[in-house]
């Protein structure tokens, strides 16, 4: 099965990089990222560009639908998110968190999120499901491409949460489990198979050290695994340095200053505003070997 990541750009794509590494634990075919294009993905990942929708729930659904249509997905496929990590060999188990009514009563949902849950509940009750289940788990899930497209078309104009609407309308035997989302890192994941983290948790030094140690090997899906990085800076020796660097072979990616990017004949992975910024981008993309051209004296 193909794996789809609906994606909204993050400052350093850190979570996505390690989520991709965790796919060693998920049997799959292609990996498709739909939405914004992350800097960290290499040529082994198919990217489907999708114009961003400000509503996060509609945007996620639109990205998944675009992936199905544009990448030609057929049959069943897996949806992951960049904040989900497969910690052990994973096979799909159909799971829920109880009923929607129970979840709403718990008081855990508020604001726009609660509004979407209630709207989903109303749609399902109108479809003859009196006490629908709550599928708001932060774990991978599986959809059927044709069934999903038909459902989305049938509910055009309505607000809903895709996962809960789909799995209630097309039920299969399932079991209840606790959610795996961690909002403050305490050093130990709550479940042995799947972990999901909040944005705050993902920024914490403790979590980053832990996930780096858990998945130290680069994934074939990362651009940093494809070779070296060429950096084009602001220094006066820039183009002389470039001539020498190109004699040494090809590069997987180019990071450039705005001025250098205007004159570079190929693709530029990212624009760097100074030498330190360029170094940070290269590091976040996982490049171990970097060739500098036109480094300024202050940073040399």
Main beta sheet: 5 strands, mixed
- What amount of the residues lies in strands? 15-25%
CATH class categorisation of the largest domain: Alpha Beta
What low-confidence regions span 5 or more consecutive residues with pLDDT below 50?
A: none
User: Counting H and I runs of at least 4 residues, what is the number of helices?
Assistant: 11
Q: What's the overall geometry?
A: elongated
* CATH architecture annotation of the largest domain: Alpha-Beta Complex
The total count of strands amounts to 14
Number of domains: 2
String of helices and strands:
EHEEHEEEHHEHHEEEHHEHEHEHE
Say what the CATH topology of the largest domain is.
Spore Coat Polysaccharide Biosynthesis Protein SpsA, Chain A
Radius of gyration: 22 Å
Mean pLDDT: 95
State the distance separating the first and last CA atoms.
48 Å
Helix content: 25-40%
Class by helix and strand content? alpha/beta
Strand order of the largest sheet: 3-2-1-4-7
Describe the structure.
The chain has eleven helices and 14 strands. The chain is an alpha/beta fold. The chain has two domains: 2-214, Spore Coat Polysaccharide Biosynthesis Protein SpsA, Chain A; 227-293, no CATH class. The strands form four sheets. It has a five-stranded mixed β-sheet. Helix 4 runs parallel beside helix 6 (162-169). The chain starts with a strand and ends in a 7-residue tail after the last strand. The mean pLDDT is 95.
């Amino acid at each position: 099965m193909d794996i789809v990541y609906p994606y909204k750009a993050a400052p350093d794509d850190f979570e996505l990089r390690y989520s991709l590494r965790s796919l060693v634990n998920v049997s799959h075919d292609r990996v498709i990222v739909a939405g914004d294009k992350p800097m960290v993905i290499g040529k082994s990942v198919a990217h489907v560009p999708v114009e961003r929708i400000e509503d996060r729930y509609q945007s996620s659904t639109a990205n998944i639908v675009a992936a199905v249509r544009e990448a030609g997905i057929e049959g069943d496929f897996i949806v992951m998110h960049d904040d989900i990590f497969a910690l052990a060999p994973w096979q799909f188990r159909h799971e829920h968190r109880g009923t929607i009514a129970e979840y709403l009563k718990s008081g855990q949902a508020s604001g726009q999120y609660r509004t979407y849950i209630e709207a989903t509940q109303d749609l399902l009750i109108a479809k003859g499901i009196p006490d629908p289940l709550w599928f708001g788990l932060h774990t991978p899930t599986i959809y059927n491409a044709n069934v999903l497209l038909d459902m989305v078309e049938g509910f055009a104009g309505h607000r809903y949460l895709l996962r809960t609407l789909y799995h209630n309308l097309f039920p299969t035997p399932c079991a209840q489990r606790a959610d795996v989302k961690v909002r403050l890192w305490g050093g130990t994941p709550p479940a042995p198979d799947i972990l999901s983290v909040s944005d705050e948790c993902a920024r914490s030094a403790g979590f980053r050290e832990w996930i780096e140690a858990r998945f130290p090997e680069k994934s074939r899906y990362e651009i940093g695994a494809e070779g070296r990085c060429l950096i084009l800076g602001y220094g006066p020796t820039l183009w002389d340095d470039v001539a020498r660097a190109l004699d040494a072979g090809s590069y997987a990616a180019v990071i450039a200053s705005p001025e250098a990017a205007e004159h570079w004949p190929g693709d530029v992975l990212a624009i760097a505003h100074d030498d330190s910024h360029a170094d940070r981008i290269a590091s976040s993309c996982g490049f171990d070997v970097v060739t500098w051209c036109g480094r300024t004296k202050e940073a040399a």
